[in-house]
Amino acid sequence: MRFHTRKWVKPEDLNANETLFGGRVLAWIDEEAALYSIIQLENKKVVTKYMSEINFMSSAKKGDIIEIGMEVIKFGKSSITLNCEVRNKMTRDTIVTVDNIIMVNLDHDGKPAPHGKTKVEFVKDRLKK
Questions:
Q1: Considering only CA atoms, which of 7, 12, 120, 126 is closest in space to residue 73?
Q2: How far apart are the C-alpha atoms of 54 and 31, rounded to whole Å?
Q3: How confident is the model over 87-126, as pLDDT tens digits?
Q4: CA separation (Å) from 93 to 40, 60, 62?
Q5: Nearest to 14 by CA among 69, 63, 82
Q6: Which of 32, 34, 105, 110 has its CA 20 to 30 A from that of 121?
């Protein structure tokens, strides 16, 4: 799994228990899944179709630095299925896991569209073409 994004847990990210609010981390996960999918599918029009069970394993506190990792599970005809882990950057403790996030590639009318991708591509490799 590759960890691309880091977030600094700030006071506005906390719940009443003074720990990272679950809704905030889910918003970060959704944004990261969208960004990852846009880059992989080379299309700005992708939407979240499905998120599987979300497993909160530990917490984060104000001042913690967390990182969000994404990994491709499979490419569908018009979708990409991802796996996600959020962890504490310093301790490596897992904070949240999501086994399956399905993102759908859309055409200009907002309908699911085939993307033609079958494997993970890195931008540095695309630039060599």
A1: 120
A2: 15
A3: 999 999 999 999 999 999 999 999 999 999 999 987 767 6
A4: 27, 9, 15
A5: 63
A6: 110
* Residue in 67, 57, 58 with CA at minimum distance from that of residue 90: 67
CATH code 2.40.50.140 for 2-127: no
Structure tokens at 67: 């990182």
Parse the chain into domains and list their residue ranges.
Answer: 2-127
> Is pTM beyond 0.85 here?
yes
Taking the C-alpha atoms of residue 22 and residue 39, their distance in angstroms, rounded to an integer, is: 26
In sequence order, the 6+-apart residues with CB closer than 8 A to the CB of 90 are 64, 65
CB of 72 closer than 8 Å to CB of 40? yes
